[in-house]
Amino acid sequence: MSFKSPQLGLYIRIVALLSLLLGLSDAGRLLGVNLGAVSPVAVLGPAGFVLLGIFSLSRLFAGVGLWLKASWGAVLLVGSTTAELALYLAGSPDIRMSAFGFAVRIVLLAAISIIFALSFRFSRAQAAD
Predict the structure, then answer these.
(1) Span 104-109, mean pLDDT?
(2) Which of 92, 96, 59, 94 is nearest to 78 (CA)?
(3) 2 occurs within a structural domain
(4) Angle at CA 94, nearest 5°, toward 93 and 95?
(5) Quick one: DSSP state of residue 8?
(6) What is the pTM of this model?
(7) Residue 33 pLDDT more than 70?
(8) What's the domain count of the chain?
(9) Is 3 a member of any domain?
(10) Which candidate, 112, 113, 125, places its Cα nearest to that of 12?
(11) pLDDT band (50, 70, 90) for residue 67
(12) Which domain holds residue 17?
């Protein structure tokens, strides 16, 4: 699947920026921004801290991959967001997010699904020509 289509360019960049902002927000939570003197490991727990670190890094790498219009960025974003939402919906005590964070992750998942569908449509249209 090729993300080189000029029609998808702006849309992919917007999703990449959203992914980068969410990844930076998670990285800020890892660093303990707005926690004061309390350790983020004490607040999140060791397993929650590790999971947040994994999801934060994968979201940052996915944002860079999407900015470069590489298909691996979209695959990484879908995989990490799906895994995080699945853990959250399964009731894992290690995954904590607000209602706004949940909504942003759903929007990211929907946006990348639309990108996959449009990319598939454009590649089929080019193959037909």
Answers:
(1) 93
(2) 59
(3) no
(4) 95
(5) T
(6) 0.86
(7) yes
(8) 1
(9) no
(10) 112
(11) very high
(12) 9-128
Q: Kindly report, residue by residue over 70-106, the tens digit of the pLDDT.
A: 889 999 999 999 999 999 999 999 898 889 999 999 9
pLDDT at 47: 92
Residue 68 belongs to some domain of the structure: yes
Residue 129 makes CB contacts below 8 A (sequence gap 6+) with none
The amino acid that residue 65 corresponds to is G
Q: What's the gap between Cα 63 and its chain centre?
A: 7
- 70 phi and psi angles, rounded to 5 deg: -95, 140
CA separation, residue 114 to residues 7, 27, 92, 94, 118 (Å): 13, 27, 28, 30, 6
Q: Rounded to the nearest 10 degrees, how much is the dihedral formed by the CA atoms of 123, 114, 108, 16?
A: 40
Token pair of 127 as six digits: 């193959």
